[in-house]
Amino acid sequence: xxxxxxxxxxxxxELIRLTxxxxxxADLAPALFELFKDMEEAGWTDLVKGMIDFIExxxxxTEGLDDEDxxxxxxxxxxxxxxxxxxxxxxxxxxxxxxxxxxxIYAATQGELEALETLAGLREAADTPTxxxxxxxxxxxxxGTRDADTLVTGLPDExxxxxxxxxxxxIALET
Length: 175
Fold this sequence. Notes:
Elements: H1 3-11, H2 13-24, H3 29-41, H4 45-55, H5 67-81, H6 83-109, H7 113-125, H8 129-142, H9 148-152, H10 157-174
């Protein structure tokens, strides 16, 4: 995987993880298929087709796909075959997202209205128990909680890594 493909995969790590999970457990499919509708409306029809092929265990036809769609589908296949690769992507995704989230939280603690509204929007957009818990951990940071162990209680590893990374960056901003 090239550095460019890795960057694309890192950006879409959550989508990749969810798609692999649905392939392994069909009971998780409804949430992903709702997302597929939004993706198709946004013009990602080729990617959605490839993801459905992947979920159903069919070979993925990459002919005609753009570089981004191909990189995402290749990462799904590799993540399905190698759980360590998926874990690496999630660590990379946390490292990429953490500084921006920490800056947002820091701005919110300084009373910046736009930052507060953005965080409230993240909480409102959260549509799974894990996403809700992660958003609540971020809001707890705005409210002054600085104990990472408390914030990550009950979170899956990938979200716990993100929250810990955000906390680390936030503390650095505050000092």
